[in-house]
Design a protein that fits this description.
Helix content: 25-40%
Strand order of the largest sheet: 2-1-7-6-5-4-3
Order of helices and strands: HHEEHEEEEEH
Number of strands: 7
Radius of gyration: 17 Å
Shape: elongated
Largest sheet: 7 strands, mixed
Distance between the termini: 27 Å
Number of helices: 4
Structural class: alpha+beta
CATH architecture: Roll
CATH class: Alpha Beta
Length: 181
């Protein structure tokens, strides 16, 4: 790895700004959509790598705008969960918390890699934590490429009950929150 340069320091700051805007988006601040889109190069590519159907590629500013706008609209999204019981009856709830905590940031030659954990839960405190990474590439101070990799494994999270969710529920909740952007 080459020594850090001023350019790499700027990229690290851009990554911090990115995650701050994602938090704003997830807490219902609609202006975060425009702030996030403004961080992108016009020909940028956002790639989400997860277990199908939780994956997708978005190329260009319009597609990326749609991605962030759809994530904004998903706030408080209604969900029907069955739980772990034998009952076939669905319980209505809604997407509650989706919060990413970046843990490790590594500035490399042409990219910035961030390891993180994201807490995903319902409004009634059922949920889990997943880990993953963001790999950013930049061009002229803008994001030119972002690859998000998400683990398919759900882990226990503080103040959320994973045991109350069935396998299908974990899938539904993951799909609702899939834009772990």
């Amino acid at each position: 790895m080459k020594p850090q340069t001023k350019d790499k320091d700027i990229r690290g700051e851009l990554v911090k700004e990115y995650f701050a805007h994602v938090d704003e988006l997830r807490t219902g601040k609609e202006e975060a959509v425009a702030k996030l889109v403004d961080m992108w190069d016009a020909d940028g590519t956002f790639e989400f790598v997860g277990t199908p159907p939780v994956n997708g590629t978005f190329h260009g500013r319009n597609a990326i705008h749609t991605l962030y706008n759809n994530r904004f609209v998903a706030n408080r999204m209604p969900l029907a969960l069955k739980g772990t019981g034998k009952s076939k009856k669905s319980e209505e709830t809604e997407l509650g918390v989706v919060h990413t905590t970046p843990h490790h940031t590594r500035l490399m030659d042409d990219k910035v890699v961030v390891g993180w954990a994201t807490k995903i839960g319902t409004a009634d405190q059922r949920g889990f934590k997943v880990s993953g990474s963001h790999t950013f590439k930049f061009k002229d101070g803008k994001i030119s490429s972002l690859k998000v990799v998400v683990s398919p494994k759900a882990d226990d999270a503080d103040k959320l009950d994973l045991t109350a969710l069935g396998v299908d529920d974990i899938g539904r909740l993951s799909l609702a929150a899939w834009m772990v952007v």
